[in-house]
Amino acid sequence: MLIAESLYANINLNVDPCDDFYKFACGNWPESHPRPRGTSSWSNAVLLSKEIKKKLKDALEDKSHYNSTAVKKAQNFYTACNDLTFRDEFGLLELRRILEKAGGFPMISKHWDKDEYNWVDAYIYTDIKIRDSRKTFLTETDKNDWRYRKEEDTLRNKIKQRIKRLKTDHTDEELDKDIDDLFALERSILNLKKDGYFYEGPDEINTTLEELEEEYPNVSHRFPTLF
C-alpha cells in the first residue's frame, strides 16, 4: 500500500503518457521530493528504505504493543546492541579471551610465559579471529618530524588506555616500559622495510595449508578447528 501510494503521487496527470511517459510517471517527483543537500543519490527507493528503517526502529523500541516471542527477542537484541557501555565491556572481555587463547599478552598479564608462547600460532589465531587488524602502526616518517612525534604520542596514549580497559595487571610505569619496547620493535621493522628486506609484491599471496606447514614446520596444531 505504501509503495502504491508513493508511485501514484509521482504521476503527473497533466502529461500525456504517449508524448512523454517518463514525465507522466515521474513528473511530480522533483517538486515533491527535493534532494537534500549533501546527498549524492535521492530516489523513491532511498525514501522507502528510510521509511522502512524508521518503522522497524519504532517497532523494536516499542515494547508495549508486541507479544510475539520472536519480536521480544529481536527487541532484546536491539537494546543490547545500543547499550554502548555493555557492548564495550563485552567486546573487551571477548578480546581478552581471544588473546588468552592465543597464548596470552605480556602487556595484560604478569603471568605470561615467553617460553610457552608461539608467535606464529598466535599470529594465525588472532588474524583469523580479528579481521582487518593492522600488523604495524608506525609509518615511514622521519622520527624527527613533528607529525611523527604527534602521531606517536597519540598512539602511545591510545595503546595505554586500551590496555587498561583490558584489566591489565601492570602498573603505569610497567606499561610505559612495554610501550617503549613495542615502538622500538616497530622502528626495527620499518628499518628492515626501508632496507628492502620485505617482499614487494601483491598484498595477498594464495597458498595452501600444506605449503604453509612445509614453510613453518614448527607450527603446532593447537588450533585445528580454525582450518
Notes on the protein architecture:
The chain is mainly alpha-helical and 227 residues long. It folds into two domains: 81 residues, no CATH class; 121 residues, no CATH class. The chain is 57% helix and 0% strand. It is built from ten helices and no strands. It is elongated and about 80 Å long. It starts with a helix and ends in a 12-residue tail after the last helix. The C terminus is likely disordered.
Based on CA atoms alone, the radius of gyration comes out at: 28 Å
Approximate helicity band: 55-70%
The percentage of residues in β strands lies in under 5%
Distance between the termini: 49 Å
The profile of the biggest β sheet is: none
- Give the integer mean of the pLDDT values: 75
Name the overall outline.
elongated
Low-confidence parts:
135-141, 220-227
What structural class results from the helix and strand content? Answer: mainly alpha
H/I helix tally? 10
Q: How many structural domains does the protein architecture include? A: 2
Order of helices and strands: HHHHHHHHHH
Annotation, overall tally of beta strands: 0
In short:
With 227 residues, the chain is mostly helical.
Note the topology.
Blueprint: H1 2-10, H2 21-26, H3 29-32, H4 44-61, H5 69-82, H6 84-101, H7 119-129, H8 146-165, H9 172-194, H10 209-215
Main attributes?
227 residues, mainly alpha, disordered C terminus, MetalloPept_cat_dom_sf, metalloendopeptidase activity, Peptidase M13 N-terminal domain-containing protein
